[in-house]
Description:
Chain A is mainly alpha-helical. Chain A has 13 helices and 4 strands. Chain A has helices spanning 3-38, 46-71, 79-95, 100-124, 130-149, 159-166, 184-202, 204-214, 216-221, 226-252, 263-273, 285-304, 309-335, and strands at residues 154-155, 168-169, 182-183, 254-255. In chain A, the strands form 2 sheets. In chain A, strands 1-4 form a two-stranded antiparallel ribbon. Chain B is of the alpha/beta class. Chain B has 2 domains: 27-132 and 266-291, Response regulator (Rossmann fold); 135-265, Response regulator (Rossmann fold, 3-Layer(aba) Sandwich), CATH 3.40.50.2300. Chain B is 47% helix and 18% strand. In chain B, the strands form 3 sheets. Chain B has a 6-stranded parallel β-sheet with strand order 2-1-3-4-5-11, sandwiched between helices. Chain B has a 4-stranded parallel β-sheet with strand order 7-6-8-9, with helices on both faces. The longest helix of chain B has 17 residues, at 3-19.
Amino acid sequence: MDSKDQDKDSLYLKLIPYFEKYGILLLLVxxxxxxxxxxxxxxxxxxxxxxxxxxISWQSMLAxxxxxxxxxxxxxxxxxxxxxxxxxxxxIVAKAGAPWYIVVITPLIAGFLCGLFNGxxxxxxxxxxxxxxxxxxxxxxxxxxxxxxxxxPISGFTDEVRYLGHGRIDLTWLGLEKSQYLPVSLVxxxxxxxxxxxxxxxxxxxxWIYAIGGNPNAARASGINVNKILVIVYSLCGFxxxxxxxxxxxxxxxxxxxxxxxxxxxxxxxxIIGGASFFGGRGTVLGVFAGVMIMGILRNGLNLMDxxxxxxxVLIGSIIVLAVYVDVLRRDFGTxx
Amino acid sequence: xxxxxxxxxxxxxSVFLLLSITTSVSAEKKILFSxxxxxxxxxxxxxxxxxxxxxxxxxxxxxxxxxxxxxxxVQAQINQVEDQLAKGVDALALAPGDPNAFAPIVDDAIKxxxxxxxxxxxxxxxxxxxxxxxNMNGAELAAKFICDKTPKGSDxxxxxxxxxxxxxxxxxxxxxxxxxxxxxxxxxxQTAEWDTAKGRSVTESIILKNPNIKAIFxxxxxxxxxxxxxxxxxxxxDVIVVGFDATPDAATSILKGxxxxxxxxxxxxxxxxxxxxxxxxxxxxxxxPNIDTGTQLVTKANANDFK
Amino acid sequence: xxxxxxxxxxxxxVTKYFGTITALENVNLKIHAGxxxxxxxxNGAGKTTLMKVLSGLYKPSAGSLHFEGKExxxxxxxxxxxxxxxxxxxxxxxxxxxxxGENIFLGREPTTNLGLLKFLDYKKIKELTEAHLGKLxxxxxxxxxxxxxxxxxxxxxxxxxRSTAFNAKVVIMDEPTAALAIKExxxxxxxxxxxxxxxxxxxxxxx
Lengths: 337, 307, 207
């Protein structure tokens, strides 16, 4: 190897950390450019962009919750069911005529309690892996949701309840047209993601979540109460699923039995695409956001192209495999000394 | 060093490739037809698809027919419709997976100047035309068939679907009307919630209390097949069972001489009418609020067509 | 201040069972200030178990621990850390995905307060880490380097640095040179010697 090659190589090695941090954003930008090129009139139109954010709004909440769990080297398969159960409870409480501020807070509490149930089950029952506990609650929560609702949709909520999922922020005072509104769900995504970015990066609890994923024994030996942190993580995951339920209630105006079916898999996929590792300790909040966006844009773009939904399944599956392969390659480069 | 870049390159290329399955732009009217589930594997939606495609070809309109990956995936269906509306269409024919969930989208579409018709399932939006089976007429047709086959004053029963759903109520009321008109004696009206197993257990208790029963109308074929099992067990093979929907299972049963008849919906018509009337609205015309796609009696004579 | 030969840590009749296995039976141990005590034994003799009992990771089945003359019940490693007892584990107990500094301060991160909210003080972590590594003459590229990128000897050095960053009175090391190359063993022993000069007390477990 001559010296010129070596220079090139070291420059490349210097770039690796940036790839690790921002590679997924690069992929996102590429996708946006490709979609814009293919659908120049539509893709970046105000209406379509806000559509994408509306469509990913509830999934982004589930993905964020699952992400924290995955960082601890765990998994939560029950988020879709938690969302469905929270949605059904919301619908029943709303139909019972409760005031809107009670209705709005119900799914958040319900989601939190479901997550708490997962966390306590995993730690107190000493389940060999969170997979088992949350696989169980995937059925338990959805079954409970069907039991209390009789398996039929419950529809019709007030505007206050629907605000987060359906509300519009008027921008005419900026000189924009009436159709160029800002969906409240977009603002909500931004706020929640910023709060959790701070939580994961700037607080002790967030740091300990990463430490538990990196080496649970190290966390324990450092005097961290690992079980307590795990219970917090699963509870927060449930809470975020509850926010997802509230958004979905606004978006569909209906509590329906199929809500959130298989969306736990979408959430896991978004985390994996975004660079989280099943072995724990790895991944960023920004990465998860990119993962959710990539899946949302892919679905949106393929819909715009009139590509059948079967193709969408094939493509999203391929992207998961590809994203993880890129990750494997990256680590190969990283360990080269 | 280029492995990673190669990979990203390959990825970009494949996205381009897969996305280049694009369609050309033309001046034709664009009709968006959104159905609840994919046609593959479900003969009902397959025939809706066929009807829509053939009508679109006949009328020379551009048809965008979309379906979620599986029936009941309301979120995916909503996303698809929103995306297409953002892209711009001239009219929307919609079989809503959940009428309530779709209500805000339908309102938005109409506000933005895209006329909407409901196909197969009626939405809750006021003033939107419904194109589909008149379930009441269909059930009445079934009741009339039973009248012709049984002596006046015979005992008959109805199995209803989930009674919070309008389809279930319409089919029940149509059958009751038909039985009353020809003087049959309705001894039981019970729900079996569209389910085969429940159809069987409900029928078992009905025939225990009413051993002289001559006919049962089941509001869908699944319940009818369940009723058939109960009757077979009790050696009451003379009892007439008429179902609704004309599923392949029911057609097979009719050919074997078990179930007597079923009612077929013209799903082909739903597709064809959906395109036809959506186009009429797009061209500024006006249409009736309810358009019946018709029903048809299926017996041993024509059951082969529905297998 | 404690005098040079004050009794710091005493274990009385410590016994530990794992199910039907008896790992420790009536172990008595005294550690004085300034003393370097080695625990030697065969594989499976119970050295590591004893260390983990002393650090509060395991609870003894019977017997008691006394610190500076007072009986203490250790519920978790946090309790022993609060008493000034630090442990270097055989499996190092470092989180590979975190940088050196964050490993050293794991569980005891300095924070800045913003009203009721506490945020990690990354600047302080970095400064303290660099100062501490410098004092122990441990050479790494940067305090921000992730532990998984370090060699075995460097990791051992980080683990030792971690145990001495909080004015420990007693440092317990479980097999500090196991699984290290000969060259690196020398470096670690030098590090232990430099600790001794700084009047740290430790208890080495070396087979």
